[in-house]
């Protein structure tokens, strides 16, 4: 995939969208009542975790 350079408002909007998507995925694991999350990988068994860092590392964004 070729690299796409974005500047100014377009770059900020893309960055904000990525941060919001990541925050939505991680926020369910936070706090004492944090929920378990099932992470499906392309190989092997699914992973069940409450760890927000693990969830964040598995997020892949298009840009």
Describe this structure in words.
With 63 residues, this protein is mostly helical. It has one domain (8-58). The protein has 2 helices and 2 strands, in the order H-E-E-H. It has helices at 8-26, 52-58, and strands at 37-39, 47-49. Strands 1-2 form a two-stranded antiparallel ribbon. A hairpin with a 7-residue loop joins strand 1 and strand 2. Helix 1 packs across helix 2.
Task: Summarize this structure briefly.
This protein is mainly alpha-helical. The protein is 41% helix and 10% strand.
Defining key terms:
63 residues; mainly alpha; 2 strands
List the helices and strands and how they pair.
Elements: H1 8-26, E1 37-39, E2 47-49, H2 52-58
Antiparallel strand pairs: 1-2
Strand content: 5-15%
Instruction: Please provide the ordered H/E string of secondary-structure elements.
Output: HEEH
Count of domains: 1
Poorly predicted sequence stretches spanning 5 or more consecutive residues? none
- How far is the N terminus from the C terminus? 10 Å
């Amino acid at each position: 995939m070729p690299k796409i350079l974005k500047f100014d408002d377009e770059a900020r909007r893309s960055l904000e969208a990525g941060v919001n998507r990541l925050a939505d995925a991680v926020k369910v694991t936070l706090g004492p009542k944090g929920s378990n999350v099932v992470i499906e990988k392309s190989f092997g068994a699914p992973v069940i975790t409450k760890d927000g860092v693990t969830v964040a590392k598995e997020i892949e964004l298009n840009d």
